[in-house]
């Protein structure tokens, strides 16, 4: 019976065959322990010299790291194993022998591991991070489908910048200028006017020359937009969504979190509702904590966000930022023109902003004036203005950065480990 490691619980006491790679091994004179992986998980294969043919034990002693195999054996429960099962090996068939695998059990530097990212992904730690990433994606689709959202795919090549910044990757689109998308938001607003509640999930690009542990050049965003949703409605969806993915990661990735040494007691506290603090109050809090150099109208950096987050044991919304700090499309506060109806959701433990969202401007004249104030060409955004001309409604949305969320939930320090092949300021290989 051929099966996978993830399915061995169904075959306790039975002999099965698994296609696997040798992740590592140790042996004595009479017994060999094979660490096997097949993509679905890791399991230990135990080869006892007295219980197998001489050729089988000889293979067990000589096979090299990352050699591919068909391993046959009896599945048994094992309380000492984090996985809960092991295999009593009865047969080994070598498919392809790996020679001089470069990533050995010794310590390797980060640059070496990044140069060998295509192989580093095979390690138990990286496997665990990718499984958590996959669970967040799976839970994302479940949440939005359950809530009646429609998946819409915005274009990756655009003719303008959603946030009016210069941090764009430029390319030629035949005779026109084009840019790699930094957000699908504007297109999702158009989709919301057609379909009510929509979400996108796709790659975005920022030509930002940053080397911090929170930044990638190419990253993935989940971007919902909702017609007839105002500021408070928007925050409620964000809370429910984040709480949902945390719950699913805890339930479905317990083994992976254990492999990574994640303190899950912290994640178990992350239930909605989440605390809120206005920009004004956050600024006062920072001044009390000794950040005297920051003034009203300044944006918060990583140290500021961390200091604010440490005041709480849950993610915290920082709301109502100054208008001058935010993109042109954000709805102003009804009683204060100097602030907008927006919020950033800051993750605890120093992981920073994972969500940025706002109510969007729905008045055509106000939108036009904001476009002009930001020095943008109104003709470029004519289609976006059309959304306000033909049946405009209050609407809101947000964007969640997948990689920062993966880093937070898995507890890894740097976002480069949270995407299969990271694109960094000085890295385009492999």
UniProtKB/TrEMBL annotation:
It comes from the Bacteria. Gene3D superfamilies: Bira Bifunctional Protein, Domain 2, Nucleic acid-binding proteins. It catalyses: tRNA(Asn) + L-asparagine + ATP = L-asparaginyl-tRNA(Asn) + AMP + diphosphate + H(+). One of its GO terms (cellular component) is cytoplasm. Residues 130-430 form the Aminoacyl-transfer RNA synthetases class-II family profile domain. InterPro entries: Aa-tRNA-synt_II (IPR004364), aa-tRNA-synth_II (IPR006195), aa-tRNA-synth_II/BPL/LPL (IPR045864), Asn-tRNA-ligase (IPR004522), Asp/Asn-tRNA-synth_IIb (IPR002312), NA-bd_OB-fold (IPR012340), NA-bd_OB_tRNA (IPR004365). Keywords: Aminoacyl-tRNA synthetase, ATP-binding, Cytoplasm, Ligase, Nucleotide-binding, Protein biosynthesis. GO terms for biological process: asparaginyl-tRNA aminoacylation. GO terms for molecular function: asparagine-tRNA ligase activity; ATP binding; catalytic activity, acting on a protein; nucleic acid binding; transferase activity. Its main location: cytoplasm. CDD domains: AsnRS_cyto_like_N, AsxRS_core. Its EC number is 6.1.1.22. It is found in: Cytoplasm. Belongs to the class-II aminoacyl-tRNA synthetase family. Homodimer. This is Asparagine--tRNA ligase. It comes from Metabacillus arenae. The gene is asnS.
């Amino acid at each position: 019976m051929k099966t996978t490691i993830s399915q061995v619980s169904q075959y306790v006491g039975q002999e099965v065959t698994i296609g696997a790679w040798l992740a590592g091994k140790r042996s004595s004179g009479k017994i060999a322990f094979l660490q096997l992986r097949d993509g679905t998980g890791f399991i230990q294969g135990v080869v006892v010299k007295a219980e197998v043919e001489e050729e089988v034990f000889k293979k067990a002693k000589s096979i090299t790291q990352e050699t591919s195999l068909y391993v046959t054996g009896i599945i048994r429960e094992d309380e000492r194993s984090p996985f809960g099962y092991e295999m009593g090996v009865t047969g080994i068939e070598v498919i392809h022998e790996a020679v001089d695998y470069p990533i050995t059990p010794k310590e390797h530097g980060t640059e070496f591991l990044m140069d060998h990212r295509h192989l580093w992904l095979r390690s138990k730690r990286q496997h665990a991070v990718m499984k958590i990433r996959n669970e967040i994606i799976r839970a994302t689709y479940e949440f939005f489908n359950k809530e009646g959202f429609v998946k819409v795919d915005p274009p990756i090549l655009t003719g303008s910048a959603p946030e009016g910044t210069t941090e764009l990757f430029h390319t030629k689109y035949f005779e026109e200028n084009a840019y790699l998308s930094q957000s699908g938001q504007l297109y999702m607003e158009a989709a919301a006017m057609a379909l009510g509640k929509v979400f996108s999930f796709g790659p975005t690009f920022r030509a930002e020359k940053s080397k911090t542990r929170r930044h990638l050049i190419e990253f993935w965003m989940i971007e919902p937009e909702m017609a007839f949703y105002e500021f408070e409605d928007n925050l409620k969806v964000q809370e429910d969504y984040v709480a949902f993915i945390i719950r699913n990661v805890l339930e479905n990735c317990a083994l992976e979190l254990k492999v990574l040494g994640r303190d899950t007691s912290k994640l178990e506290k992350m239930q909605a509702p989440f605390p809120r603090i206005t920009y004004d109050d956050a600024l006062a809090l920072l001044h009390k904590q000794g950040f005297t150099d920051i003034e009203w109208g300044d944006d918060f950096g990583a140290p500021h966000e961390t200091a604010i987050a440490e005041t709480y044991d849950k993610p915290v919304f920082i709301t109502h930022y100054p208008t001058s700090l935010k993109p042109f499309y954000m709805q102003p506060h009804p009683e204060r023109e100097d602030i907008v109806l927006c919020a950033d959701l800051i993750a605890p433990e120093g992981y920073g902003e994972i969500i940025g969202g706002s109510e969007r401007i729905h008045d055509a004249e106000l939108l036009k004036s904001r476009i002009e104030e930001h020095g943008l060409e109104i003709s470029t955004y004519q289609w976006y203005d059309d959304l306000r001309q033909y049946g405009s409604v209050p609407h809101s949305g947000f964007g969640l950065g997948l990689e920062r969320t993966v880093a937070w939930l898995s507890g890894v320090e740097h976002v480069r480990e949270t995407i299969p092949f990271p694109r960094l300021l000085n890295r385009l290989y492999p």
